């Protein structure tokens, strides 16, 4: 079972449990005496007079998150394009950059071995490139999850309990870095719960068609 399927199943279970609690609450209200129901209704009117408060997740600065991630993505892809041109490779060359188990950046491409090794050395010696890749490798998966969950909510009214659990009521603690930390913790927890699964982030890679 994939991790994303696990996320979806847990979210559905939480939503179902929430619905069951709401039904139980409604049933208990029917059993109350009329005067108790009237008092409760009066209290509810006062509490809800301002309308239902928007969930904290609906206030996330997704546009800003995309801007931050986009800057790193552009920087990485432009650097790769320059390297392809610098080493005289074909414009249709497809490359992928990932990180090895030792932490070094590795290049996957159908190019001569000597040029591949030279480009890898250049990329590993480029501090700005390494840092941008590191940020992108954690920020992009988190943003993809948040963006997809919010789009489903806007289009179909589907709430994602996992997203709600990731988000703080205090927007000052909902920066992309905050969400990345909570999302990563959730992934590790789910990985530990899955039989035979490793609680590690899957290998991340940036892929580029130089001519695209």
Descriptive keywords:
single chain, 7 helices, three-stranded antiparallel sheet, 212 residues, 3 strands, 64% helix, mainly alpha
Q: Would you write up a description of this structure?
A:
By secondary structure, this protein is mostly helical. It has helices at residues 3-30, 34-48, 62-86, 113-125, 127-156, 161-166, 176-193, and strands at residues 94-99, 105-109, 205-209. It has seven helices and three strands, in the order αααββααααβ. It has a three-stranded antiparallel sheet with strand order 2-1-3, covered by helices on one side. Strand 1 and strand 2 form a beta hairpin. Helix 3 (62-86) packs across helix 5 and helix 5 packs across helix 7 (176-193).
Give the secondary structure arrangement, pairings included.
Layout lengths: L2 H28 L3 H15 L13 H25 L7 E6 L5 E5 L3 H13 L1 H30 L4 H6 L9 H18 L11 E5 L3
Antiparallel strand pairs: 1-2, 1-3
Helix pairs in contact: 3-5, 5-7
């Amino acid at each position: 079972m994939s991790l994303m399927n696990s996320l979806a199943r847990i979210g559905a279970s939480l939503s179902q449990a929430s619905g069951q609690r709401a039904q139980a609450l409604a049933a208990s209200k029917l059993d109350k005496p009329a005067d108790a129901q009237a008092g409760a209704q009066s209290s509810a009117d006062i509490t809800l007079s301002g309308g239902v408060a928007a969930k904290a997740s609906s206030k996330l600065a997704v546009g800003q998150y995309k801007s931050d991630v986009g800057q790193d993505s552009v920087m990485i892809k432009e650097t790769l394009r320059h390297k392809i041109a610098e080493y005289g490779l074909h414009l249709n060359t497809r490359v992928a950059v990932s990180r090895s188990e030792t932490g070094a950046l590795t290049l996957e491409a159908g190019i001569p071995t000597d040029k591949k090794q030279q480009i890898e050395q250049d990329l590993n010696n480029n501090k700005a490139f390494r840092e941008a890749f590191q940020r992108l490798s954690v920020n992009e998966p988190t943003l993809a999850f948040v963006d997809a969950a919010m789009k489903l909510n806007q289009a179909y009214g589907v709430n994602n309990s996992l997203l709600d659990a990731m988000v703080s009521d205090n927007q000052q603690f909902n920066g992309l870095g905050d969400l990345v930390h909570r999302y990563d913790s959730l992934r590790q927890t789910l990985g530990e719960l899955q039989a035979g699964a490793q609680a590690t982030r899957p290998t991340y890679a940036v892929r580029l068609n130089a001519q695209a």
